[in-house]
């Protein structure tokens, strides 16, 4: 019945070479950052500063990177520690047969539970990653009995984390709106009520990291993603054609702008193209919290940002259609967003 290969099982079997389905084509394989040395991390923004300087720094980071770290974000550091710890405990303490009880229904996209990427078609390559996806918002989608029972605080920690991430996402979208001269709630109102999913990803050590990716290059399809990682490096963001490693900072949260925000801001702010690489020695864990529009919401550039000097750049799109093209065609960098460009 269980036809999907769990990456963790391959890693634990001690294989010396990765199976062919995990080998990336030459042009997708991880490359060492070029010299002369590129910036060695994404921008760091301190949310305890004065709001004028926060807006200015966020504006610059969103224009140039689509990715930045925030510190003094108001989320209890203990909660960041706890969610990493319950996630690690699920992947490392819970026996695989027990984990399989939570397997997600792989016949449809983004279903809740324990998963690993399957071959979508003959030429797609598998990620060196297992994950657990939680549906957390709106509350009508949140059913903690679908989540691991152990450790005993697992469900409470995920629920609490969901609430704190929502509040932080609202706060950052507000700064972003204001930094563009828009009303504070402009971007959030365009997105509407958040559909929030929390994905805990587990990247086992990989015998051939130079041939594989933990997660292929993509931009996230929703509005804004908040991500934390452990102390093992692996996340990279694309900046002016170079992959820049996002160095782990224990107390910081990584903000990744996603595609709908690029559309709403008419391309003033860019979604981050990113990927995760693997390593041969240490398992890596990350927790990504995605904030998306409802499937029925139509996303279009904010009219306030469109003028003669800054003409309309994107077609509007009903979010459901965006998601289905993402899943049928695959991310392949930012192809789905480019398809909405006017005059292309
Ligand atoms: C994602 C993602 C990166 C990471 O889940 O969309 O980009 O470091 N994750 O796990
Ligand atoms: Ni992502």
TrEMBL record:
Record-linked Pfam families:
2OG-FeII_Oxy (PF03171), DIOX_N (PF14226)
Domain Fe2OG dioxygenase, by residue range, is 193-293
Residues spanning the signal sequence = none
Query: PROSITE patterns this protein is in?
Result: FE2OG_OXY
State the superkingdom.
Eukaryota
Which Gene Ontology molecular function entries are recorded, alphabetically? metal ion binding; oxidoreductase activity
Q: Name the UniProt key words of this record, in alphabetical order.
A: Iron, Metal-binding, Oxidoreductase
Q: Which family does it belong to?
A: Belongs to the iron/ascorbate-dependent oxidoreductase family.
Q: Which PANTHER family match?
A: OXOGLUTARATE/IRON-DEPENDENT DIOXYGENASE
What is this protein identified as? Fe2OG dioxygenase domain-containing protein
Organism, scientific name? Acer yangbiense
